[in-house]
Amino acid sequence: MQWQPDWGLRGRMGLTMLLLGLLYVGFIAALAVSGINLLGIVLILGLFSFGQFFFSDKLALRSMGARTVSEDEYPELHATVGRLAQQADVPKPEVAVADSQVPNAFATGRSQSKATVAVTTGIMQTLDQEELEGVLAHELAHIKNRDVMVMTIASFLSTIAFMIVRWGWLFSGGRGGRGGNQAPIWVAILVSLVVWIVSFVLIRALSRYREYAADRGGAIITGRPSALASALMKISGRMDRIPQEDLREQAEMNAFFIIPISKGFVGRLFKTHPATEKRVERLREMEREIESA
C-alpha cells in the first residue's frame, strides 16, 4: 500500500482553520464593540499568537513532564524514530521522553522540520518493539499530514477565550466591585464563552478524524496494521490500572495523545478520539487488504 494524500483530512483542516479564522475576527470585533481598546486587543492577541506558534511545543512537553533526550541516552528509540522517519519521508523529529506510568505518546511542533515525538516510559514498558514502532509511525503520520501544526494553531483561540471566561471577572472589580459601568467586561466574558464552546467543538471534531488518518498513515509506514491495532488495545486496557492522580494530571492533553485519557474534566466533556474498537477494526481491514494483495 502506498501513501496517498488524505483529502478528507485536508478539507477538514482547511474548513476548521477558516471557521476559526472567522471566529477569531468576530471575537476581536466583539471585544472592541464592548468598549475594550482595539489596539490593545490586537497587540495582546498578537503577542500570544507569536508565543503559541513558536513555543507551544515546548509548553506541551513541559506540561507532560517530557524532556528531549539524546542518542546516547536512548539509542534504540532514536534509531527506530530515524528509520521510521526515513520510511515516512519526513525529517527526523526531536525525541522526548516523559517519566510517567501512563502508556502514551504524542507529537508536537509547528512544521515537519520543527517537530518532536514524545513517548512515556510507561508505553516503552508496555509494548513490544513492533507495537512501539506502530505507535511511533502513527505520530510521524500526524507530522507528515501537518495536522499537528493545525491543532497547535487552532487550540490558541480556544485557550485565550477560556482564559477570559475564567479570569475576566477580576477586571470587573470583583463581586459587587465599584468602578462604574462593568457591562463591557461581562459582555467580553459572554462572547468569550461562546467562542470557547464553538472552537472547542471544532477542534474535537477535527481531532477525531485525524486519528483515523494517522492510524492509516502509521500502518502504511510500517506495513503492519496489526502491530498498531495490538498497541491500541494494550494501551487502552492498561489505562484502567493507572492511578487516578496520574490520569488527571495529563487529561488536558487528550487531543494530542494516541489514546485519550477518559478521566478528567476535558475527557468527560467531549471525546477527542473515535472508539478504540472502531480504530482497531479499520486497521484489521487494512491488514486483510495487504494479505489479499
Summarize the structure.
The chain has 293 residues and is of the alpha+beta class. The chain is 67% helix and 6% strand. A hairpin with a 5-residue loop joins strand 3 (105-109) and strand 4 (115-120).
Present the secondary structure layout.
Layout: H1 7-33, H2 38-64, E1 66-68, H3 75-88, E2 94-98, E3 105-109, E4 115-120, H4 121-126, H5 129-145, H6 147-167, H7 183-222, H8 225-239, H9 244-250, H10 264-269, H11 276-292
Parallel strand pairs: 2-4
Antiparallel strand pairs: 1-2, 3-4
Q: What is the molecular shape? A: elongated
- Termini separation comes to 9 Å
Please tell me how large the radius of gyration is.
21 Å
Class by alpha and beta content:
alpha+beta
Provide the helix percentage.
Answer: 55-70%
Strand count, sense and barrel status of the largest sheet are: 4 strands, mixed
* Beta-strand content bin: 5-15%
Please state how the strands of the largest beta sheet are arranged side by side.
1-2-4-3
Number of domains: 1
Report the total helices: 11
Parts with pLDDT < 50 across at least 5 consecutive residues: 175-180, 242-255, 263-269
Average of per-residue pLDDT values: 80
Number of strands: 4
Q: What series of H and E elements makes up the topology?
A: HHEHEEEHHHHHHHH
Cofactor: Zn(2+)
Family: Belongs to the peptidase M48B family.
Subcellular location: Cell membrane
Organism: Halapricum hydrolyticum
